[in-house]
Specification:
The protein is α+β, with helices and mostly antiparallel strands and 122 residues long. The chain has two helices and ten strands, in the order βββαββββαβββ. The strands form three sheets. Strands 8-5-6-10-9 form a five-stranded mixed beta sheet. A three-stranded antiparallel beta sheet has the order 1-2-3, covered by helices on one side. Strands 4-7 form a two-stranded antiparallel sheet.
């Protein structure tokens, strides 16, 4: 039986979690104070995923950059590939919150979207 210790990132409580696995299957989760902790622990030990946040350059905008994020979680092992895909991306103002900045980033099937609006200079 394998045992893994985690700190939950599902909420600000940061509960210390103890997960027992048997042949890759989660047998038990202990230490969580809410349901989100159990969900996080099960996902983290079997298929870890993350929302990725960053910024991209805006040309002709009132701001030089716009914040972006993946629309959904992507596999943890794709984070660096996602960041590499965002490097050098430039968008033309105006940018609206929710605009797709990169489609299907790192072949994950997930788009990167703007998380705020940036108006144009003119």
């Amino acid at each position: 039986m394998e045992k893994r210790e985690l700190i939950c990132i599902g909420c600000p409580m940061g509960c210390p979690l103890s997960v027992e696995l048997d042949q890759g299957e989660v047998v038990s989760v202990r230490g969580n104070t809410c349901k989100r902790g159990e969900i996080y622990a099960r996902k983290e030990v079997t298929n870890p995923t993350r929302i990725v946040t960053s910024t991209v350059v805006v040309e002709g905008g009132k701001l030089a950059a716009v914040s972006v994020k993946t629309r959904e979680d992507i596999p943890k092992e794709k984070i660096f590939e996602c960041m590499k895909a965002l490097k050098g991306v430039k968008v033309q103002a105006p940018v609206h919150m929710g605009d797709v900045i990169v489609k299907n980033v790192a072949d994950t099937g997930v788009d990167v979207i703007a998380t705020k609006s940036v108006g144009s200079l003119s």
